[in-house]
Task: inverse folding
């Protein structure tokens, strides 16, 4: 078994790194994010085991790198690059560090039919009718869109999709 792990660690690291590279580039340029998001997250997690095996297999040469100043500089530079993303995101506690459009979508879902209709440039009756036609149960226009989704047994994202279609 040890022989198998030794022979496969580096090829697995290489293969999973290439998958992570391609999916990361696709996500960066917003190419089919629904296709690449889960792949990128999960296979990056899977990469941990082959990476650990690769380090274990190559520990002697790796320990030589650890003694060189260039390794420390590379680690500090990597940490600084990571912090450049973490610090601004961590300070955005109102949306939990998520992109602002998620916070706006949550506010829309918390809004009543009356409030959202006025933002959408519709009457509450027209928005209520559109929701009903899409299979949502609207008791009254003071209900929040989240309450309507829950009462209808549908995900809140379905209401957001309906609103996006209404607005286009």
Result:
């Amino acid at each position: 078994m040890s022989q198998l792990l030794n022979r496969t660690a580096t090829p697995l690291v290489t293969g999973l790194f290439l998958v992570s590279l391609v999916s990361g580039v696709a996500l960066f340029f917003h190419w089919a994010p629904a296709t690449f998001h889960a792949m990128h997250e999960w296979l990056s997690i899977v990469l941990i085991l082959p990476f650990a095996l690769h380090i274990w297999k190559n520990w002697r040469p790796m320990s030589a790198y650890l003694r060189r100043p260039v390794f420390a500089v590379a680690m500090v530079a990597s940490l600084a690059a990571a912090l450049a993303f973490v610090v601004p995101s961590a300070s955005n506690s109102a949306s939990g560090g998520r992109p602002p459009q998620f916070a706006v979508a949550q506010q829309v879902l918390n809004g009543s039919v009356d409030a959202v209709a006025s933002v959408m440039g519709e009457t509450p009756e027209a928005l209520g009718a559109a929701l009903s036609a899409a299979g949502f149960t609207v008791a009254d226009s003071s209900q929040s869109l989240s309450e309507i989704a829950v009462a209808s047994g549908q995900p809140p994202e379905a209401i957001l999709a309906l609103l996006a279609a209404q607005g286009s």
